[in-house]
Amino acid sequence: MKIVLTPFSKGGLQLKNHVVMAPMTRSRALNNLPNALMATYYKQRSEAGLIITEGTSPSPEGLGYSRIPGIFSEAQVEGWRAVTRGVHEGGSKIFLQLMHTGRIAHIANLPEGYQPVGLSTIQAVGEIFTDAEGMQEYSVPVALDIAGINRVIHDFVKAAQNAIQAGFDGVELHGANGYLLEQSLHPQVNNRTDAYGGSIENRSRLTLEIAEKIVAAIGPEKVGIRISPYSQLSDMPPYDEFEVHQTYAYLSSELNRLDIAYIHVSDNPAIPQKTHQAIREAFSNTLFIVTD
Q: Residue 41 burial (CB < 10 Å; 0-12/13-18/19+)?
């Protein structure tokens, strides 16, 4: 127990203790704006060394759920400043989790003129709550063309820059739980035949290009990522175990090359020890292992 309360320092990540608060969607952001209730919530938890916020969209088309916050407008940046100010008053660090929901969305949850997007047009099986229409089946996503992928990359980078302007200490890319970045990694959800589909290297390309450009924009010590190998959340069907293993070993190695601050593994019983070990051997900076 003593080590939990001692300072932590590794790879540019310096925390007052070893306690990390994992992200959790709250759906309290009316009109997708951070508000006083959210500022109070995070300030109350500033005894943790590091707080990772709820999933926050880098763009209007990534707002798949009702009332999740964004970080793409000046009003949102201003709203988040109250959150980071309160957390810093408590001596904690706070990273903003950037979450683009991709196909895990319904058009009723998006601003007018926007549609859910994905790496393909494969509709997720299941339902999602909407304020306007109650429970609805997931919308069929519009497949991103190359211009669309470039727009997504740009939106993530701009969102990371906005996060720093709002006072965050860094950002966490949400590459887990069946959202856009994990969709890009999955061969049964990403059926593309261009440079962003097919091989493990190609399916990892979107995540790595986003990570690389954010590192260039705000610094590697301000970047983390969440992953969930073997997870079946959000209609992510199982696929070849060896290919899953190789995907995350490769991804971890490339993220190590970028020298990002941490990898946050969302643990589940399906992850074999060899995959945990491969991630650890490939990545030399900090690992968070969180059991959902």
A: middle
Buried b (16+ CB within 10 A) or exposed e, 113-129: ebebbbbbebebeeebe
State how beta strands 93-98 and 50-56 pair: parallel
Give φ, ψ of 143 to 5 degrees: -70, 130
Query: Please, is 138 exposed, middle or buried when counting C-beta atoms within 10 Å of its C-beta (0-12, 13-18, 19+)?
Result: buried
Pick the catalytic residue from 42, 65, 138, 179.
179
Nearest Cα residue to 235 out of 148, 128, 132, 145: 128
pLDDT 10s digits, 134-172: 999 999 999 999 999 999 999 999 999 999 999 999 999
Q: pTM of whole model > 0.90? A: yes
Give the start-to-end residue ranges of the domains of the chain: 14-291
The amino acid at 76: Q
Q: Is 239 assigned a catalytic role?
A: no
For 14-291, CATH gives: 3.20.20.70
Q: CA distances (Å), 24 to each of 75, 96, 97, 204, in order?
A: 22, 12, 10, 25
